[in-house]
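Hi Prof. W.,

I finally got the Type 1 fimbrial protein prediction working! I wasn't sure whether to trim anything, so I left the full sequence exactly as given:
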Amino acid sequence: MQQATRTRAAIVVSLWIILACTHARAADINLSGTVVASACTVDAETKDQTVTFEQARAVDYPNVSDTSEWQDFALTLSSCPASTTQVTVTFTGDADNDDPTKFANTQGDATGMALQIMSRDHITEISPQGALAVNVDSISRSATFPLSARLYTPTGYVTAGEFKAVVQFSFTYQ
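And this is what came out:
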């Protein structure tokens, strides 16, 4: 009798395990993500850079599109990983009210002047929210954006005062 009870108990437990297993279901878990290129190092001279223009006289800008001399500067990145082959810089700042392709004087009291930024070869103009891409040098693992800036009058009506435009930049790595 005791043997029969044990056998029945084993059968009941086995059936319970089988029934429990039949209620188990397989589930798929979908995981996704993005693999991005590693960042380069922004050189110290590039961070918080100030481009200074020679003193300008308001009377020297009587016509629309009059400009100051170009002032060259560069944004330089180094220690780029081997997987990074191109870097894009995006410029942000306030657009000038009279010429939205130029950067506004946001912290000075001079009027009628804007900031024009171009590639150093003066072929590509950089406007607010504009971008520029360069290839990473495969040997030095660096990327340089040679640029030029100048004061520009979109109106020809310039008043004396201080000129300060703030242009921020961010990098995207490919």
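The chain has one domain: 41-173. Does that look reasonable to you?

Thanks,
D.
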